[in-house]
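Ops channel
N.P.: pipeline sanity check, posting one input/output pair.
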């Protein structure tokens, strides 16, 4: 049973909460964590025996085996061993000794989270390596792992895209778009609630006619009030405000807001403008940074915003790494 007052027990509990796959050995201040290796840029593996070169983007995880000594963290550094079949011995040794230097740099305090985060960042850059020479058997193993990992990621991405599409199709019917062609953002949220139009503003006058013996004056007033309230709600829904720039416009005629008591212009949007708006909504993806509509002409679904140069997916508008194909 670990002593709950011990700093080491506190750190192990934190690691288990942060890293779901962190395994702690029973009644010991030790355990292991696996960090996945998804490279931002593919690493070249060379097999001289077969005169073969291949690039790999997904690599088997690095297993971090650690032990927290009795005098940790005050006078002793954590003991760390790294396990990765594809990492060269000299690289493994450098990374293992980094745990001790990190402990000193942080002032001899709890450093396992900082050390693991450091390894995760290095893993994305292939630990600073650009190419690596390996045996034929290891290269075959890495190629199989890379293929299976890529297929798994693609299936996960497909499920994500399908979910986004369902949500988009469900919301498209009720989405109101800003009519300005150069922005085309969606009106969203409740920052600008619909205005409450009072009956007085609607110009409704209620007068009881005492000289009308065949009708109940109160019933007439109630009916008129209900009808006026209904009309007020219909008129108030015309006002829409785009939150990002506070642009107010009429939902029916798509023009700058003209007030509740001004009829919408009969011409509204001409056919060419309506066709352009429809084309933009159906054939473009909106940049997740600046909401600029971007059309894919050819190639894969990795596109770049023409305004802010953000890299994102044409299908779901999710952010993508610059070097991610």
């Amino acid at each position: 049973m670990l002593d709950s007052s011990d700093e080491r027990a506190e750190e192990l509990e934190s690691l288990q909460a942060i890293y779901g796959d962190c395994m702690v050995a029973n009644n010991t201040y030790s355990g292991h964590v696996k960090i996945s290796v998804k490279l931002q840029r593919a690493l070249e593996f060379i097999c001289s025996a077969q005169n073969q070169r291949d690039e790999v983007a997904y690599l088997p995880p690095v297993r971090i085996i650690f032990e927290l000594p009795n005098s940790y963290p005050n006078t002793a550094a954590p003991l760390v061993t790294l396990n990765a079949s594809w990492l060269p011995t000299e690289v493994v040794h450098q990374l293992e000794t980094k745990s001790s230097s990190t402990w000193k740099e942080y002032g001899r305090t709890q450093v396992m989270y900082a050390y693991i985060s450091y390894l995760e960042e290095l893993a994305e850059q292939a630990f600073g390596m650009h190419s690596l020479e390996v045996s034929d058997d290891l290269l075959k193993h890495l190629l199989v792992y890379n293929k299976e990992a890529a297929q798994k990621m693609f299936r996960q991405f497909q499920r994500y895209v399908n979910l986004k599409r369902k949500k988009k199709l469900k919301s498209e019917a009720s989405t109101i778009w800003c009519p300005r062609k150069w922005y085309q953002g969606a009106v969203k949220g409740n920052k600008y609630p619909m205005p409450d139009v009072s009956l007085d503003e609607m110009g409704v006058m209620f007068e009881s006619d005492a000289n009308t013996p065949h009708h109940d004056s109160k019933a007439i007033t109630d009916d008129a009030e209900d009808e006026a309230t209904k009309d007020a709600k219909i008129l108030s829904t015309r006002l829409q405000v785009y939150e990002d720039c506070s642009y107010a416009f009429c939902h029916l005629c798509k023009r700058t807001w003209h007030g509740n008591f001004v009829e919408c212009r009969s011409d509204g949007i001409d056919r060419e403008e309506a066709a352009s708006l429809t084309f933009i909504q159906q054939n473009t993806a909106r940049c997740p940074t600046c909401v600029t509509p971007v059309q894919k002409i050819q190639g894969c679904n990795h596109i770049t915003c023409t305004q802010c140069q953000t890299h994102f997916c044409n299908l779901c508008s999710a952010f993508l790494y610059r070097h991610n194909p």
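N.P.: looks fine end to end. The longest helix spans residues 136-172.
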